Fold this sequence. Notes:
Layout: E1 2-7, H1 12-24, E2 29-32, H2 44-55, E3 61-66, H3 70-76, E4 84-86, H4 90-100, E5 104-108, H5 114-126
Parallel strand pairs: 1-2, 1-3, 3-5, 4-5
Helix pairs in contact: 1-5, 2-3, 4-5
Amino acid sequence: MKIAIGSDHAGFELKATITKHLKEHKGFEVKDFGCHSEESMDYPDSAHPVCDSIEKGESNLGVLICGSGNGIAMTANKHQNIRAGLSWTPEIAELARQHNDANILVLPARFISQELALEIVERFFNAE
């Protein structure tokens, strides 16, 4: 499974945690589209490349992270073939995959713990 991941500066730390988890615990290949520090940046600069990777078939699914999750989700959902689901509980993430065929999980870094984020990631990627 190939996963595209991206964030803004608010999601930088959580993105690193999720990337490590996806590689070490899920065995996924993860392509990081930035950001690469906590220096302020605009979330579309990471969102668009993640979406492009999925639309081109280079990645199967994606993860996007910003402070609230709203801005990066709105940006992603402007892409024709992207269905980005903002999830703040494991149940919402699972339903986004099962009922809405979400191909990008969006997380609100400033509103969830790293532990909860990993639970959400697990439910999203384990959903059928």
